[in-house]
Amino acid sequence: MDIKVNINLYADNDGKELIRLLSGADLPTEDLTREKLKKFLVARSQDDIVIGAIGIELMKDVGLLRSLVIHPSHRRCGLGKLLTSELETFALTKGVKALYLLTRTVADFFLGSGYHITLRETVPKDIANTEEFKDICPSSAVCLHKKI
């Protein structure tokens, strides 16, 4: 990666910039409570602007990967892979053994990162009961998982 970034857990002062970035990428924000936002990793540029983020909802030994987003000016420089890797490491420290996600647009990115397509009906009950699975993401979204 040829840009310098700082990646940290979400802080309250990240809120407006993060929601604006997610909304601009047409990613869901309606269910993002302060508690859910606390499980986001936020990437800031050297000039302290939010340029990327990724989140997780933790449920026992599985996690729901939420909303990988990269500002358009910083795409294709490895930031998505870096954020995904950082999130997987974070998830491991929390006892997570498998990650699941739904996507309408970046299935190829995750397939290239070791994720596999899975049927929505086969995900663990805790994952299936999330708002994202029940109400937010359309049935046309691709369901993926990865053992970590």
Q: What does this molecule look like?
A:
The chain has six helices and seven strands. The protein has helices at residues 15-24, 34-37, 79-93, 107-111, 125-128, 131-136; strands spanning 5-9, 40-45, 50-59, 62-70, 98-103, 116-117, 142-147. A seven-stranded mixed beta sheet has the order 1-2-3-4-5-7-6. The longest helix has 15 residues, at 79-93. It is globular. The mean pLDDT is 93.
Number of strands: 7
Strand content: 25-35%
Q: Topology as H/E string? A: EHHEEEHEHEHHE
**Biggest beta sheet attributes:** 7 strands, mixed
Strand order of the largest sheet: 1-2-3-4-5-7-6
- Extract low-pLDDT stretches: none
Q: What is the SS-derived class?
A: alpha+beta
Whole-number average pLDDT? 93
The N- to C-terminal Cα distance equals: 23 Å
The shape, in one word, is globular
**Percentage of residues in helical conformation:** 25-40%
Total DSSP helices: 6
- The gyration radius over C-alpha positions equals 14 Å
SSE layout and pairing:
Blueprint: E1 5-9, H1 15-24, H2 34-37, E2 40-45, E3 50-59, E4 62-70, H3 79-93, E5 98-103, H4 107-111, E6 116-117, H5 125-128, H6 131-136, E7 142-147
Parallel strand pairs: 4-5
Antiparallel strand pairs: 1-2, 2-3, 3-4, 5-7, 6-7
Quick recap:
The chain has 148 residues and is of the alpha+beta class.
Features:
single chain, 148 residues, alpha+beta, seven-stranded mixed sheet, 30% helix, globular
